[in-house]
Amino acid sequence: MKRLVMWVLAGLMTLAMGWATAADATLGAGDVVKIAVYGSPDLGTETRISQSGNITFPLIGQVKIGGLEIPAAERKIASMLDSGGFIKKPQVTILVTAISSQQVSVLGQVNRPGRFPIEGKRTVLDMLALAGGMNIDGADNVTLIRKRNGTVTKETLDIVEMMRSGELQRDVELAADDIIYVERAPRFYIYGEVQRPGAFKLERSMTVLQALAVGGGLTPRGTERGMRIKRRDAQGKIQVIDAKHDDLLQTDDIVYVKESLF
């Protein structure tokens, strides 16, 4: 299933790349822009937007373009060139060559954690794909932390269920400084007379028999009779439960496999 999700994520990323356009971008501090004026190659400029949102452009000096979408910034520079009497009806184009102002953090159990620019519209799945998808220890759920109008919100998204059901309306659009955090998947433990005792990822609806298979099966001395589950109750005390093959495991359960007496 994990491999399927990876492939689907990669496909969505490819589609998203196609949908996004530079015109969707809002310019901000730290962005590097390349500006050209048709017919006036001497005015061509590549510059970084200052923290105050300004750039310095030939002939017109300081121009505030931070917070504007690209078409609006193009019109503003063109208007200033025209109204200043420098060029009549200039055609200005802006290309963003480096985005620093609009970034999302993807952290936790992904293959390439880091900060990624929002080029056009980007959703949670887009960003997970850019981060290389979840790694082998990643959980099915991700936490999305957003700050809007001074209020921080936290939301849990079930990525696998989203893909299975096709309910992509939960694949919300992101904004600058949003955080996606992929937690480590829940685990179970198995020991005793199994080939590979240890800690393993707990899959959904995983049974005791499936856990035994994940542990490599029985050793020559092991038996499926008398298996036990050790589980903490609400008070944190360990409870020992006689295990049946189709019992469902819970997070942090410990499965013990006995040695056969015969």
TrEMBL record:
Gene Ontology MF, one: porin activity
InterPro entries noted in UniProt: Poly_export (IPR049712), Poly_export_N (IPR003715), Polysacc_export_EpsE (IPR017478), SLBB_dom (IPR054765), Soluble_ligand-bd (IPR019554)
Signal peptide (residue range): 1-22
Record bears the keyword Signal: yes
Domain named Polysaccharide export protein N-terminal: residues: 22-96
Keywords assigned: Cell outer membrane, Ion transport, Lipoprotein, Membrane, Palmitate, Polysaccharide transport, Porin, Signal, Sugar transport, Transmembrane, Transmembrane beta strand, Transport
Transport in keyword set: yes
Membrane topology: Multi-pass membrane protein
Record GO cellular component, one term: pore complex
A Pfam family the protein falls into: SLBB
One annotated GO biological process: monoatomic ion transport
Transmembrane stretches, start-end: none
Domain Soluble ligand binding: 188-241
Subcellular location: Cell outer membrane
Domain SLBB: 102-182
Gene3D superfamilies noted in UniProt: Outer membrane lipoprotein wza domain like, wza like domain
Highest taxon of the lineage: Bacteria
Family per record: Belongs to the BexD/CtrA/VexA family.
Name of the protein in its database record: Polysaccharide export protein EpsE
Organism encoding this protein: Pseudoduganella armeniaca
Name of the encoding gene: epsE
